[in-house]
Design brief:
InterPro entries: Peptide/Ni-bd (IPR030678), SBP_5 (IPR039424), SBP_5_dom (IPR000914). Residues 91-456 form the Solute-binding protein family domain. Belongs to the bacterial solute-binding protein 5 family. By secondary structure, the protein is an alpha+beta fold. It has helices spanning 3-16, 39-43, 70-79, 127-138, 145-148, 188-191, 249-258, 271-277, 311-320, 323-330, 361-370, 393-407, 420-429, 446-449, 474-485, 489-506, and strands at residues 29-30, 45-46, 50-54, 84-86, 92-94, 97-102, 108-113, 152-159, 162-167, 211-217, 221-226, 240-244, 263-264, 283-286, 295-301, 335-337, 382-388, 411-416, 435-441, 509-515, 519-522, 525-526, 543-545.
């Protein structure tokens, strides 16, 4: 449809994500065959209705310009359109940009914007909004994009529908981050000249997407309504999205089973409940829609801790954890052991020939003895406090698993729980922790989602999900920066291979599991999973089948 322009961009895109079709676990839809909602049922689908959605935990903000936490992005993807979206093969598809061209030398990228698009307040969307967002947000305060766009030296807007990026050096991952949450475009007329971090519109966002923000009742719900002026004719189909906060896992499962909730992403119920719910004809359990993410669960060591600053102790802890058992017992097989901070789903960049830490209690004990940390009369070497990501029971149970694993080698662990805001402040701002578990999305290129956990340039910024360990390594920093501007894909692979070797030897952050998230939703819905970035994209295609209006 985009002719030569899309083929040029597609050629570069294919160089970045070689074999990406094989990089994700096969799509799984339990209890329904793919495509079985077509035919007569699809013809009976109706416009309108309210879709009730689980949002857990409650977001800190609703705008993904500075905070990229999971719940923020789940909501924001419905409010903000990006320049592109991504299909199941992670190829960029038109959104606010109808087409684009990449110069052969990679130093110019031109976007041709869709005409007639309006912000939710009625003001026209234009190239000026993209230029301002890139210069004032993506390059300055966005946690992932600062490094990706640092080589953009100039943004030209010859007219309201054209944006030209001029780069000093190529930045190959750019085309992988341009959806609504990856590179959020903010309304210049509401943000220019303000403190972006504290702008009130962060919590009452104005976007160009299919749904308009209406209300955020803290502790209860976020409500979005249909955008009557949306640029894609006939969409969205639904009248309203109601994101509900239900902290208790059992209550979430009950609400889903009763039909009070029709869509619940990100492992909304315990795995045992997922198995049970999948057997009900009224529900589906689906792992599609997470392909863009490549999520990896990891353990961050605070390398300034009196014990954990010794690499022998960090390696000992790595040997003490049976990651295969963790995947099976805690995550019910919806995960597999990770051997690198670059997940195996990133086929082009993943390095399987790395220093490894196989489960070996004797090796862990020997390393701790070598570090001079002998057991006392009670068999205890030292005590650590563990903070787990407060995103549900899976993370708490992971913390309990780690506690038992470390107890076997003489390390006592105290588990500490808190809400999301407190967790972020403790780990990334105050650095008042010993070790913590969280997860990051790697995305299709390590430059997007992996290196932020290791680059020392993030230290002292208090930015969530960036270098929680406090790691500093000059060679790793240099490789990160070199890969960010390297235009030769083969050289970038070599740079990331060396990077992985360094950080896995130093192990400031221990990869635990490659996660495979699932969603649960009503069988009375169609169009709920349409693309590879679905969970962070919009529900503009979703609609009820045989559902009365005002559902």
């Amino acid at each position: 449809m985009m002719g030569r322009d899309s083929r040029v961009a597609g050629g570069i895109r294919r160089r970045l994500v070689v074999a990406v079709a094989a990089m994700m676990t096969a799509a799984v839809v339990v209890g329904v065959l793919p495509g079985s909602m077509g035919g007569a049922a699809a013809q009976e689908a109706r416009q309108g209705g309210t879709l009730s959605i689980i949002l857990q935990p409650e977001p800190v903000t609703l705008t993904p310009s500075t905070n990229m936490a999971q719940p923020t992005q789940v909501v924001a993807g419905n409010i903000f359109d990006g320049l592109v979206t991504y299909d199941f093969e992670l190829k960029p598809k038109p959104a606010l940009a109808e087409r684009w061209e990449v110069a052969p030398d990679g130093l110019t990228i031109t976007f041709h914007l869709r005409s007639g698009v309006k912000w939710h307040d009625g003001k026209p969307f234009s190239a000026a909004d993209v230029k301002w967002s890139l210069e004032s947000v993506w390059k300055t305060i966005h946690p992932r994009n600062k490094s990706l766009f640092e080589n953009v030296t100039q943004v030209d807007t010859p007219d309201d529908a054209t944006v030209i990026l001029r780069l000093s050096k190529p930045s190959l991952p750019i085309l992988s981050v341009l959806n609504g949450v990856g590179a959020p475009i903010l309304p210049k007329h509401l943000y220019e000249g303000t403190d972006v971090l504290n702008n009130p519109y962060n919590n009452k966002p104005v976007g160009t997407g299919p749904f308009v923000f209406k209300e955020w009742k803290r502790g209860e719900f976020v409500e979005l309504t249909r955008n009557p002026d949306y640029w894609e004719a006939g969409k969205p189909h639904l009248d309203r999205l109601l994101f509900r906060m239900i902290p208790d896992a059992a209550a979430r499962a009950a609400a889903i089973e009763k039909g009070e909730i029709q869509y619940a992403p990100y492992n909304p119920v315990p795995f045992r409940d997922a198995e049970r719910l999948a057997k009900l004809p009224r529900l589906k359990v689906d792992t599609r829609g997470y392909e863009w993410l490549s999520p990896l669960l990891y353990l961050d060591f605070n390398v300034e801790n009196q014990y954990l600053k010794d690499v022998r102790v960090r390696r000992a802890i790595a040997h003490a954890i049976d990651r295969a058992a963790l995947a099976k017992i805690v995550w019910f097989g919806y995960a597999k052991p990770a051997i690198s901070p670059v997940p195996s789903s990133l086929v082009t960049f993943h390095n399987a020939k790395l220093p490894q830490y196989p489960f070996d209690v004797k090796k862990a004990e020997a390393l701790l003895d070598e570090a001079g940390l002998k057991r006392d009369a009670n068999g205890v070497r030292f005590t650590l406090t563990h903070d787990f990501l407060p995103y549900g029971d899976d993370y708490r149970r992971t913390g309990e698993f780690l506690k038992q694993a470390l107890k076997r080698v003489g390390i006592e662990v105290t588990i500490r729980s808190q809400d999301s805001a407190a967790f972020i402040k403790r780990v990334y701002v105050d650095r008042d922790f010993d070790f913590a578990i969280s997860y990051n999305n790697a995305f299709p290129d390590p430059q997007i989602g992996v290196v932020r956990a290791f680059w020392s340039g993030w230290l002292g910024t208090g930015t969530p999900w960036t270098n929680g360990s406090g790691y500093r390594n000059a060679k790793a920093d240099a490789l990160i920066q070199e890969a960010g501007v390297e235009g030769d894909p083969a050289k970038r692979v070599a740079q990331f291979n060396e990077f992985q070797d360094i950080v896995l030897s130093d192990v400031p952050s221990l990869p635990l599991l490659e996660l495979n998230f699932f969603s649960v939703y009503s069988a009375d819905l169609e169009g709920i999973v349409e693309q590879g970035d679905q969970v962070y994209s919009s529900l503009k295609n979703a609609r009820f089948v045989n559902a009365p209006k005002g559902n």
